[in-house]
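Chain particulars:
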Amino acid sequence: MTLADTLVAIEFGGYEDVSDEKSFRFRFYCERCDSAYESDCQPRLHEDANGFIDSVGQILREATDGDSEPADDAAQFEHDAALRAASTQVGEHFHQCPQCGEWICDRCWNRSLLLCEKCAPSGVARAASY
């Protein structure tokens, strides 16, 4: 798990990487109801760009006797940047309850009291519980 993975997991509680070979995409889940919000597709770098990174990385590796693969480093950096961008994009749909600390979606959020529905049920939620 990378630092970006850890930060997003802490921030939102749960997410899934649904990326493919052409683009990055992430699905984030509400801790309360498991509703999912999916980020927009973010295109990956073209293979030409990755080839260029490989070439530059090879030169740097030879110059520094490094054993890290720059293509892997570049791919991880690109993934982490896409994950951070996706969490920013879907962040408007999530709220952290100041009372219980859970990250919950718009449906589970009591907008008038700025708490989750568990900590401050709205009239609709209270009526359903009787």
Remarks:
- The chain has four helices and nine strands.
